[in-house]
């Protein structure tokens, strides 16, 4: 994950936005907003939000430890916090455990909050992205040792945002995946759903021959807008995932 994080964060720092980091325990966010909307108090407000939401989730996990270990959909307790409900619902739609959506859930939470202050918002959380923009942006795809890694990007039109763009990998990072895809990328209406769906997509790819069936599965999920699968030199694309060549330093940028 450190290598992946360095790649994404080098790509994301673009001239038209001001970027800052917020770290609370395992939650490590890179955030971008319009220059005139940035202030030190905004950093403090986001950190406070993340601390409060992490505390709510951690307290819930102590009451419902199965939520943290489930690899299939899990029914939350009636008094679960909203973030746990969001994670569980996304996981239910794609057939994975709710923690598969945790990074995306925090990206959504912070992204929606920042959207109250800025028309341009980028939230990166472990390579998972919440994006809100008034102009077309491109988002690079990191796929480990694949020859396609850092060579292609997703072109995201403004009218598709806000949305989540999340990646699962069986060869990069420490996140659990039962597949062997170098990158399974999902575009969805929320980062919470994109995160869970990327895990489900990646789990279905063991060989290049699995790409077509995996993409067929993911396109049936309500709220999923597009997907990309990379395994070695092989690539599959579906839906509103439009690929363009990636130029150095242009992963999330004005176009």
UniProtKB/TrEMBL annotation:
The keyword Lipoprotein applies. The keyword Lipoprotein applies. Keywords: Lipoprotein. InterPro entries: ApbE-like_sf, UPF0280. It comes from the Bacteria. This is ApbE family lipoprotein.
């Amino acid at each position: 994950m450190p290598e992946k994080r360095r790649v994404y964060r080098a790509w994301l720092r673009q001239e038209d936005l001001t970027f800052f980091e917020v770290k609370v325990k395992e939650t490590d966010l890179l955030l971008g907003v319009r220059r005139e909307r940035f202030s030190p108090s905004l950093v403090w407000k986001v950190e406070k939000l993340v601390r409060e939401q992490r505390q709510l989730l951690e307290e819930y996990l102590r009451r419902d430890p199965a939520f943290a270990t489930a690899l299939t959909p899990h029914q939350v307790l009636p008094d679960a916090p909203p973030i746990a409900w969001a994670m569980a619902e996304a996981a239910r739609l794609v057939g994975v455990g709710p923690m598969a959506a945790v990074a995306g859930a925090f990206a959504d939470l912070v992204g929606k909050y920042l959207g109250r202050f800025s028309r341009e918002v980028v939230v990166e959380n472990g390579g998972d992205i919440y994006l809100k923009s008034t102009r077309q942006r491109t988002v690079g795809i990191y796929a480990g040792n694949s020859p396609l890694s850092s060579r292609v990007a997703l072109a995201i039109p403004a009218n598709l945002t806000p949305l989540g763009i999340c990646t699962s990998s069986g060869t990069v990072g420490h996140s659990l995946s039962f597949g062997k895809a170098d990158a399974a990328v999902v575009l969805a209406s929320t980062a919470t759903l994109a995160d869970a769906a990327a895990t489900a997509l990646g789990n279905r790819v063991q060989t290049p021959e699995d790409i077509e069936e995996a993409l067929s599965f993911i396109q049936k999920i309500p709220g999923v807008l597009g997907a990309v699968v990379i395994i070695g030199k092989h690539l599959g694309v579906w839906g509103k995932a439009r690929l363009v060549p990636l130029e150095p330093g242009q992963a999330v940028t004005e176009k």
